[in-house]
Amino acid sequence: MRLQLSPFAFLRRHAWGLAVLCVVVVGYFATVGWFAEKLGDDLGRSFKAAPVVDDTKHRSD
Question: The whole model's pTM is what?
Answer without folding.
Answer: 0.59
